[in-house]
Amino acid sequence: MIEQHKFELMDAEQLTLKLIEAQYTLKNSRGTDHAKSLVVIVSGIELAGKGEAVKQLREWLDPRYLQVKADIPNLFTQKQSFWQPYAPFIPAEGEIQIMFGNWYSDLLATANHVSEPFDVYLFDDYVERMRAFEQDLKNNHCDVIKIWFDLSWKSLQKRLDHLAPAEQRWHKLHGLNWRNKKQYDNLQRLRQRFTRDWIIIDCEDAAVRDQKFAQYVLQALRHLPKHYENGADLWQQAQIPEALLHPRHAPTDQADYKKRLKKLTNKVAAALRNDQRRIIICFEGMDAAGKGGAIKRIVKKLDPREYSIFTISAPEKFQLRHPYLWRFWNNLQDKSNILIFDRTWYGRVLVERVEGFATAKQWQRAYAEINRFEKDLSDNQTLLIKFWLAISKDEQALRFQSREQTAHKRFKITDEDRRNRSKWPEYLDAAADMLALTDTDYAPWHVIATDDKYTARLEILTAILAQLLAADG
Amino acid sequence: MIEQHKFELMDAEQLTLKLIEAQYTLKNSRGTDHAKSLVVIVSGIELAGKGEAVKQLREWLDPRYLQVKADIPNLFTQKQSFWQPYAPFIPAEGEIQIMFGNWYSDLLATANHVSEPFDVYLFDDYVERMRAFEQDLKNNHCDVIKIWFDLSWKSLQKRLDHLAPAEQRWHKLHGLNWRNKKQYDNLQRLRQRFTRDWIIIDCEDAAVRDQKFAQYVLQALRHLPKHYENGADLWQQAQIPEALLHPRHAPTDQADYKKRLKKLTNKVAAALRNDQRRIIICFEGMDAAGKGGAIKRIVKKLDPREYSIFTISAPEKFQLRHPYLWRFWNNLQDKSNILIFDRTWYGRVLVERVEGFATAKQWQRAYAEINRFEKDLSDNQTLLIKFWLAISKDEQALRFQSREQTAHKRFKITDEDRRNRSKWPEYLDAAADMLALTDTDYAPWHVIATDDKYTARLEILTAILAQLLAADG
């Protein structure tokens, strides 16, 4: 926690020198074991001077490595999570992002705009989820500090008295009626529900305000702790479910397979098309388990304008400089109502765990992070349908063999696949933990045995249909 | 041009093998002198089966390096250029992007939706600008092929007869009434205004359709010509204007400087705030010419929620894999109405030209590309205000010296700056060409002498005000 006492005005030259040094140290941390990025969340009373303080900071720092995001508030619509409008702006290692507009300013704007009083429990619930989201950012080396620019009622009124009429109008547009004491008091009450862990800057004096702000940022910039990456001493490995160890081989009667498939395909297409929610269908499973084939059947009767498919491979270098969920946040910016993922964010606890791309601490933490991520989506009119396609090692061998024999399928088998195959038990362990720790009410897993691919296809479609119709669709 | 005759059905195994080989060759071209990306624009008559053909192609290719964009149409609003919704999806070297939704489908949808008949001259003007945009993409190693899926009136009616009612409703939602012969004929007439340079696929037969589509894509994938980068034999260097050779030093009376500055700052803020257009203010100039100081005065009376500042430095590696304007297209996604650029896309014809980061061919071509880019913006309710800040070499030396003496400003002078300084004549040549070739009616340059920075600030604000009030603001 940043210390709030012992404040002293510094020589401005000294301060800017230190800020720039710290900024360059941050920038040069990229790729090291103490790399981080910094989000500065800024909110406060209108006319307290947060804009001026940000402008001053921009002059004291090198503006090339400092972004300022400052849109007018997004009112909460229940159609996207509070973090969604901001996700693309979560900075990369070495960068600083000032969030003048942020999830708290959106929360305050929403609470003040809804006609009925905003339920305080709902308000507190939002705050709790925001804090959890920020903690996840911090754990992923994106530091967050939050600064509230405060101003007393008396000073606010005095400043309003001296404001040009044109400006008065503009400030009113973007908030409350600041002449109304009741509204002011209400806002102060509301913000106290979340500013417990904020830095509060009293903005009576402009010079003190700008310096305090800059000094807090400086303190945060200088804090570049080494990544602490040890895992739990004792990791409680989940038992591997029977369904993964010995996937059923349940042949389908070929006579009516085609008829049933066609009927199901039509039903699934209609149910997907008519659902008002956003649908996210996720596929994970060993190689050659049939993810591609399943996706093909799901979209069979849909038009490409109705869905998007994301085929996930190893992250690019620039993506690795962000929290690992970042690239999926960006995928969610897609406008389609139906999103299908061929491999997903669960890569963190599967391939990244097994191959050592994530540290023990990182993958062990990821279960809770992913659960929160999916909960946020599910709370915002999104239905998650998740599949683990279980294949036996023997059946995989047969499929690899048949691919080897087909020239154009050979590209699908890489040395990587063969390596993965040699780590079969580790992948089963990883899948077992994933199923045990992320099978939630709001985003349950479907484990489908795929040794018989015909049965698997029918079961996948049936499961999608059931989940679409079960929830309040 | 792709040959449209001599079509033969290929063995599907052979075709997919060739497609995947070509796709991997494309992918491996990244970073070489024959690298490219491929955009496949897909449109056509409803039910012709373009969706099926795209799905089939997705199965024949490796889906990890193939993106499909297929939103429902964006109607043209005059608030953004036709390419703006698609700009973020222009693929990086080595990638393939299928644009199932694209600027042509938007054009057709707009022409069919507006209540009054869409003027054919306006239609043709759009088509011309689309072709110019595509040519710019091609020149920047992003190849474009366009494929129209055609279907006769008779076949369309037959397919509608066999469509389930639910599907019929959905298809109707996304286009015309396909039972209306007049609408069908009208669409065919309209599309013929742009399909001259398209590949037309007759979709009577599904197998032929899918193969033709895949074969055309294959042909495009295989075409990986070496980048041809020789410049013009004789480049007509513009004469360096007097204003650049000898920037005036016109001292401002310090007595009323502050008063005038304050008044202008207020006026500019009010004019910017009240303008209904989008405003883009661009700064270019030698180092230490005062770009930062000018920006500071422009935003002085604005709130950060009203503007965004982009401080442009050298592109990142992943940005270099796209056309050079791509990162600026992305900046334009910003929601602010006032965008300020501290350095701009003119880097292509300034630093990239002088330092050799762009080939002669590239920077020579860029003037026309930039003009088209700015024309498109200006045609869509955007006002461009461009400044070249002219400083004398002596004054720059003085400012560098004073920076050297101020610890916190030392970071602003790098070896690069000193190198730039040694190429002063080359930068003046580059600036001269830029001013000669990109000073347009719709986006004129203001050359401001900055040896006296007080005068410069007043002149910049005055110029902004004048341009805001001059045009039909």
From TrEMBL, chains A, B:
InterPro entries: P-loop_NTPase (IPR027417), PPK2-related (IPR022488)
Swiss-Prot/TrEMBL keywords: Transferase
Domain Polyphosphate kinase-2-related residue range list: 16-222, 254-468
Stretches assigned to coiled coil: none
Gene3D superfamilies: P-loop containing nucleotide triphosphate hydrolases (3.40.50.300)
Pfam families assigned: PPK2
MF annotations from Gene Ontology: transferase activity
PANTHER family: POLYPHOSPHATE:AMP PHOSPHOTRANSFERASE, POLYPHOSPHATE:AMP PHOSPHOTRANSFERASE-RELATED
Name of the featured protein: Phosphate--AMP phosphotransferase
Source species: Acinetobacter larvae
